[in-house]
Records
---
Amino acid sequence: MTDELIPDDDLVRRISQAFERDLPPIPDRLSDVALEAFQWRRADVSLAELLFDSAHEELVGVRGAGSERRSFRYAAGDAVLRLHLTASTMIVMVEPPLSVTCRIETSDDGGGEHRTDELGELVVDAPTFPMRVEIDLPGGTFATPWITG
Amino acid sequence: MVHDQRFSPGDDLAVLVEGALADTPAAWNALVTRLERVVWKAVNMMTYDADIRDDAFAATWLRLAERLDTIREPQKLPGWLATTATNEVRQLLRQRGRLPIGLPDGGADSSGGGLGSLLDTLPGADGDHEHALIAAEDAQRVRTAFRRLDDGCRQVITVLVLTDPPLAYDQASELLGRPIGSLGPTRMRCLEKMRTLLEHEGDAG
């Protein structure tokens, strides 16, 4: 038995060719988006680790999909970052409570810089997707992975 | 765009990844040029919903920029990108409550392909026309059967199609979020399902 997922099947090749023959050209605007993605790379920022995504929980055994609310929890060094998204707002919570600089980044540059209050909370208008949240903590700057929708 | 002579799309993937990790935009640009078609094909195989297809394409590149320093084997980046793209499509389909299946061949598919456009543009003798017609019909039959698969099977087969070189089972398991022991049986089950669907489409073999 091989230890690799090898596409050794004629049927797999046939499927590949079926899609290849009518594959539309990549729109220039999408190629540009791919090129511009590099500007969002931040080697000096640590990636917060996803601990919880309500979308994953809701999908288990629940008919239908999509939700007007979504929650995330991330480990950011010794702190925990919570995000609660609705159609109109996003609540950011830092635990333990800290007043820190928080940047909302969207790939269309529609985000902004804010500060959590002394309870570690912040309420902003719901950002567009894809978006991520970057926070300056005493131990360094952390960013959530991109939330794409 | 300023071209950096040090990097070109034909360079070794390890060189391009290393260059991008060193914050050289030209290396990233070469990576995109080299591999964007892998991502594009993955999202097109997974869905015909143009919004989701485009958003998943964009999200995949954001994800690579974010995770570039976690790429352990640059040679397997095509597989990583294909798998990530299929994951993004599935996530978006669920979040937006869309049906995974899009428009049929011959409909208002933004691909601009399909039999009608093919017949309008075919060059050559009648024999060439006939050969192309048969090939086009076969491709359409395969695509129709493929889009009748559940999105889990479409994902597994899409990853199979686009991972060159192949992903190791442990890597595929991690990226697909499936137990390592389930990959072989799942692949077998999905291909068998595809064969059955093709038979229903009148496939001659």
---
Amino acid sequence: MNGIRTSLAVVAATLVCMQPAAAQDSHSIGFTAALSGDFAAFGVNMRRGVELAMEEIAASGGPSFNLVIADDRGEAREGVLIAQRFCSDSSVAAVLGYSFSSIALAAVPIYDQCGLPVVGSAVTSPDLSGASPWFRRNILTDAVQGAMMGEYAATELGLSTVYVIHQQDDYGIGVANAFSAAATAAGMEVIDTATYLLGARDFRTQMTRARAARPDAIFIGGFYSEASKIAEQARDLGISAQILGTDGSLNPELITLGGPAVEGMIVYGMFDPSVATPPPANIIHANRARVGGYPHAVSARGYDAMMVTAEAIRMAEEGGDFTRAALNDAFGAIDAFPGVTGPTTFDAQGDRDGALYFLRVEDGTFTLAD
Amino acid sequence: MDIFGQLLVNALMLGAIYALAAVAYTLVYGVIQLVNFAFGELFMLGAFICVSLMLPSVALFGWQAPMPALPFLVALPLAVVIVAGLGVVVERLAYRPLRNAPRLAPLIAAIAVSVLLQSVAQSIWGPEELRFPRFALGQLPPIVLFDTIYIRVMEIFVLVAAIASMIGLTLFVQYTRMGRAMRATAEDPTAARLVGIPVNRVIAMAFLIGSAFAALAGVLYAQTYSFAHPTMGFLPGLKALTAAVLGGIGSIPGAALGGMLLAFVETFAAGYLPNGAAWRDAVGFAILILVLAFRPQGILGRKELNEAPAGSLVGEQVAPRGLFAPVDRFFGWLGQGNTVLNIALACIAVALAFIITNDYWLRILVFVVTYGMLASGLNIVVGFTGLLDLGFVAFFAVGAYFTSILFVLVLRGRFGIDPADIWWLFYANLFLGGALAALIGALIGTPTLRLRGDYLAIMTLGFHEIIRIVATNWIDLTRGPMGIRGIPTPSLFGMPLMSPKYLYLLGLALSILVVFGIARLVRSYVGRAWVAIRENEVAAEAMGVPTARYKLLSYATGGFIGGLVGVFFAHSQQYISPLSFSLFENILILMLIVMGGLGTFIGPFLGALFWIVFLQVAQGMPLIQAHPELRYAALGLVLVLLMIYRPQGLAARARVSLMMSK
């Protein structure tokens, strides 16, 4: 929505940067995600985070970067062409973004071939762990996150039965399986597991079944737009069970869309706008000044990805000749670089460790759950 | 039993919305035999406009605009009227100029309008969902029956609104002058015009009412699920179309019945089958296929509607004139089978691999030949045989999954065989995958033999959806949405053909084989039989052409090519997932052959070249960098213009002439 104004400003800035005089020593950063079509919201928010980071770097006297945008529209075909486009553009130093694991997986062989480092910020498939020495991500994988939630629900919340519903894709299957395994191990009973295809809006049938099963909790392994509807339809059907969500639901839009139905829902994530350590304050102020409201978790990861990339570029340039390979080594050498989602270090698999926060929706905002 | 009552209520709710939107399709189809794909987007616009009118302010193009904050019962009719007007404008600008064009041109224009409206909506309202505002009527506590059935007051409103508007429309069509004129136009447009009925006005009226119904359905849907989003219309639009076909397209009571039936089948399948929700769409389409197999005209449809539609699918040949004249003359020579010209073209295509050094452009060419071949396969079915197929991607998927499962999951996963040792199997798989897809093509073709025109399109689309849903849900076989990775690149005696250059050359070699094969087949008696079926199936049958056999042969041949391309695609990508075989791909491939020219050999490749290069070049433009969603808006606009100025496709003159000229 408000991204349009942001992007106009940034494109104006980019156009200025593209003047030949400045182009000599400024790197381009490729950014690709689904920016139109069904799941555009994730990509647009991620892009905003990257742009906020670029502006902050420039404002504090750092280098300026050109941002090259490519919309994959959620189509694998476009994803492959975009990867090749970035590979062939020698000014592109690194690629950020990616909304879909399937598209990242389709693009990985191409990045492998041309040797271009990538930092994904929204793709969680376990298949991407160690998929390529060039691919990294600053989001935790499904397996780790789901398991932590399962244990939390059983031990901390003391829930004993749960109805699991998840979206039928790599993300939903990943978190739901990990959640169920950990919950069962901790003594919880998974009464039933239902799935839905991405983009579904009618969950009354599943919720009618859930109601008949009388669970203590409903676990939703999916994104905020579907989760808000599941919660609302569950409440409309008179279900009062505790609703649990994932980091896919940690988004201010969950509360806008779900309203009173998501009150009390518990989710987890790496970014916590309610914790006012200095780095989050930066992005919160910038985001509020630009578009109003709290930044989305995916914006925060986009922001951190850009910050880490700038740091890696600085390290690679210090080391002498700047090449994509040198930059890739620099990414590997990043050690606990502070960011709004916590410190970033990439392991040999390209994955990242991080702390999870559990958050509860209270009076229309996310607050730390204890 | 404790869920039965609630499922009943849920199904009624959904059925009312499907039925309303189905009326939109059925009304317009009844009058001008056009499946107006853009109704899905008018449905979405109805929702957005109503929501916007009900809010005190809304962000439009990123700026907060003040809005009147109207109550629901005022905003609803206002939104319906605005969208109805918009529907008439769309008809006037995009469809009326195509009144006498070949039959597929308006269909493609409708898809283009739908793509355009969706992109524009994202520009206006942004990519996030807009919450449906809370209003008094929607906030009333639910009515609880027997402790287990929860009914919201708005749900009763939805049902009442649906029934009232259906009855109103039926009375209108039965008893008013305009209604009679509409029925007369539906019966015979030419005769209607002769007796003084203003046909254009009648058609505009059909669009007006149809769009109003789509908008009403959109508002009620948005209210029920409390959101509006730019892409919200696609799936309900498709369901409504399915419902309209199920009930018998052209029949208003049929639309109501079809909508209800579909909603009941989906809801109860989801409620009672194990993990039914993931399969609900597949079950819906399975019912559609069953009904059409036994009753090709739908439940309440009139039998005549399933007859071959008047007018050739490909239209009259164009005379070289105006702007296109030099192009036309060139394609004219090509179409006559000029050997020198064909060899020269092939040589240029090969030379490109060595002239172009940029890997990005070579990768674009890999996609051009892949989609060109795929479209060539569909061209056999649509362009030569005249069977409207919207499920072709299913064959593509079968080929791709066949080879991926064999190489990765079975040979490497189960038996630990190194793909490098069996590099030759890729080449064998091109044929095996093709043969498997051909077999499936003939199997799928059998129940469709009695179907004509748009009924056929919807049924094939149903087959595709079933195959896609199986690929997504049968995780043990296909790894589902996770996809299969690590598919070996094609190699030749140990030399991997991994770079875009080699992939392009390999794809080109396959393309030349495919085109040569199709050309031999089309110029034989088989091709003549196909073209006879395309031009007039009844006459062909009467002249002794065994139409059933040739139709199946056409499906099988098209399927073979689809499967072969699937194998090539899987190995050149090294990764496949259901994402590559989405429903939109079917529409895309159909667009490629209509753009390029139906019934030509070069057309599919030309269409693919145009489409892919346009999208890639647009990606770099400053305006698109700022507003990525406008790329598809631009594409939609170009497509509508292309259909208006060139409905026969770019290479129309290259059409293979197998008919005697008049």
